Amino acid sequence: MPQTLPYGSWPSPLTPELVAQSSPRLDGARFVGDEVWWGESVPSEGGRVTVRRRRSDGSVETVLPAPGNARSSVHEYGGGAWTASDDGELFYVEKTDQRIYALTPGGTPRALTPAAGDVRHGGLSWQHGNLLAIREAHGTERVPARAIVRVPVDGSDTEVLAEGSVFLAHPALSPDGRHLAWIAWNHPDMPWDATVLRVADLATGDVHELAGGDRRAPLQPVWIGDHELLYADDPSGRWNLFRRRLDGDPQPVAPADADTGGPVWVLGTRWFAATADGRIIAVRTDGDDEVVEIAPSGIRPLGVPVVAGASVEDVRGSHALISGAEASGLSGLWEIDLDTGDASLVTSGDHPGPGWMPTARALTSEGPHGPVHAFAYPPTNPDVVAPDGERPPYVVLVHGGPTSHVGPAPSAKTAFFTSRGIGVLDVNYGGSTGYGRAYRERLLGQWGVVDVDDVAAAASALASAGLADPDRLAIAGGSAGGWTVLAAVTRTNVFSAGISRYGVGDARALAEDTHDFEARYLDGLIGPLPEAEAVYVERSPLSRPERFRVPLLILQGAEDRVVPPSQAEAIRDALAAHGVAHSYVLYEGEGHGFRRAETVVDSLRRELGFLGAVFGFAAPGIPPIELG
Q1: Rounded mean pLDDT of 487-513?
Q2: Contact predicate 281/238, CB 8 Å
Q3: More confidently predicted of 47 and 479
Q4: Across the chain, what does the average pLDDT equal?
Q5: How many CB atoms within 10 Å of residue 469?
Q6: Percentage of the chain with pLDDT > 70?
Q7: Contact criterion met (CB below 8 Å) for 486 and 464
């Protein structure tokens, strides 16, 4: 019989150590001969990204041994840090020097690109016997020079295939090698605002624009013949698929009120793929993800259980590789037999079992700017119930980006809290993807207003429905989510505590300090400088330090180049100057996002101990922390 204990004090087997090891990040996957290869982070090795393979006999081997680390820093966020040839040679970007290396399993890495200043590579892909990459060369100018390059595997000089814009992504070489397609955009646009789809004739050098323009953001060109492309575009306000011959007009492919596409935060993300026999495997997102097959015979959902973070990694014959997370929270990589519909799990993180994982409840509440979408995860523990009449504390999670999305799949961290009697509310505030362009553009010019109003509205609706204790609502987020945390605790009375991980406190400082990829992001979110400087000042939480009133936990990486430690330290100093209870932790060796197992463990202990100190409970084994 379950025991009765107050919320927050429930015993749980989900230790911080288990959470740190449970969900390694997958970084791409592909078929290599009769094997499946994938990239995977190793938290116990400082977040190093290795490459593993499943052999034809089912055994799993490491292809990239330590100290090799497949991490790109193109656009700072990287992506596409490895690929492989069809005969099993690995090509990867080494984190320490950003050069491309080749490695035959069991052999010694050999450099394919020279050591030449601050030159970075990412977005690697092996196409028709060619190794393609995005090259980013940093010099004296703030804007690096970027190009799509072909990298000879014999170590000779790279060949520039395309340049002429500030940013490039998704290079695609036609099967006959004659044409190159790619996505391009320039400041001040972000890749979800406005991009163009370009095609170059590599024999003549002629370049044509096939799609894009103002308030259009085509994505991910894929060749389905020597002269025909499949790509995503959003003229209707939702990313849908189109096909177009080079000498023809675009033709819609199975339009839907859902998105096949998303924000290009990292290189190499894929939302669809085409098979040799004319079928298309695509992700459709409208709140949650669905993976479908689009064929001449019709559209059918595939049997893969992924509902969040879905990516179509590769197709080969009648088989596809899909990564993502299922509704139970299990995150992994699945192989699908498209003919039979069978899906088999290739690799996944650890899973504590269904009894310990909460089930998402989709909630839509009305806010001052329109509907607000969120997923609620109630306290879930098979061995404990709460006293009658007690309402649970909740942590309201604010995702980063802010142009990003969360789906209905609990993470191990979510279960870490819910198994202890602390609910979690994950909010897709206005500005989030997954609900169309209009919902995403709700944040234009309104960052620090719409996001704050939306998370406050979602949290208040949860409390008004009797599902949460209105006096024990905390808000937590990282990066842009940290900005919303800081703005929400200074501009509303909804939250009693805040947790900011590498959060933005001063928008002007962010505009001055941040890297090139986001250098003009704030033009759209707040306004261009210097014209909108007064708005930057008014919106920034640090401009009104007297408004800080509730306890705050500030967590920061010492090597963060996106939001440097100076911002977190200014927040710490403001809290101390105004006598607000707080705790500040600086993690050496961490950047923008925590990857080391020891950091994840320590930050989880501190977050739970912080909530215990503020809300008045003691979690078994993790006492409340002391606040300054």
Answers
A1: 94
A2: no
A3: 479
A4: 95
A5: 18
A6: 100
A7: no
Q: Is 621 left (phi over 0), alpha (psi -120 to 50) or beta?
A: left
The edge-to-edge listing of strands for the beta sheet with 240-245 is 219-223, 228-233, 240-245, 251-253
Are residues 82 and 63 in contact, defined by beta-carbon separation less than 8 angstroms?
no
What is the average pLDDT across 403-415?
A: 95
Please give the Cα distance from 471 to 468 (Å, whole number): 9
Token pair listed for 531: 């014209």
Average pLDDT over residues 544-552: 93
What share of the chain has pLDDT > 90, as a percent? 87
8-state DSSP, 483: H
User: How far does CA 449 lie from the centroid of its chain?
Assistant: 23
At residue 200, does pLDDT exceed 70? yes
Count Cβ atoms within 10 A of the Cβ of residue 399 and give its class: 0-12 exposed, 13-18 middle, 19 or more buried: buried
d(CA 375, CA 439): 17
**φ and ψ at residue 463, rounded to 5 degrees:** -70, -40
Q: Where are the alpha helices (DSSP H) in 395-513?
A: 412-418, 437-440, 450-464, 480-491, 507-513
Among residues 473, 485, 496, the alpha carbon closest in space to that of 395 is found at 473
Sheet with 145-150: list strands edge to edge: 119-127, 130-137, 145-150, 159-162
Bigger pLDDT: 627 or 239? Answer: 239
Cα 156 to Cα 95, 105, 136, 138, distances in angstroms: 21, 22, 18, 22
> What are the phi and psi torsion angles at 419 (to 5°)?
-70, -15
| 85-to-33, 104, 108, 149, 614 alpha-carbon distances in Å | 9, 10, 17, 17, 54
The reply to whether omega before 402 is within 30° of 0 (cis) is yes
Maximum distance among all Cα pairs of the chain, rounded to whole angstroms: 77
Mean pLDDT of 369-378: 98
Distance CA 513, CA 135 (A): 22
β strands within 276-316, DSSP E: 280-286, 288-295, 298-301, 306-316
- φ/ψ of 537, rounded to 5, equals -65, -45
Task: Look at residue 622 and tell me whether its pLDDT is greater than 90.
Answer: no
pLDDT at 19 over 90: no
Spell out the alpha helix ranges (H) of 190-290. Answer: none
Residue type, 353: G
Length of the chain: 628
- DSSP codes of every residue in 563-611: S-HHHHHHHHHHHHHTT--EEEEEETT-BSB---HHHHHHHHHHHHHHH
CA pair distance 326, 308, nearest whole angstrom = 7
Over the stretch 234-255, which tens digit does the pLDDT of each residue have? 999 999 999 999 999 999 999 9
Is 545 in contact with 490 (CB distance < 8 Å)?
Answer: no
Q: How does pLDDT run across 271-298, given as a tens digit for each residue?
A: 999 999 999 999 999 999 999 999 999 9
The more confidently predicted of residues 43 and 443 is: 443
Question: Which of 416, 351, 349 is CA-nearest to residue 381?
Answer: 416
CA distance 487 to 374: 19
Q: Is 588 exposed, middle or buried (0-12, 13-18, 19+ CB in 10 A)?
A: exposed
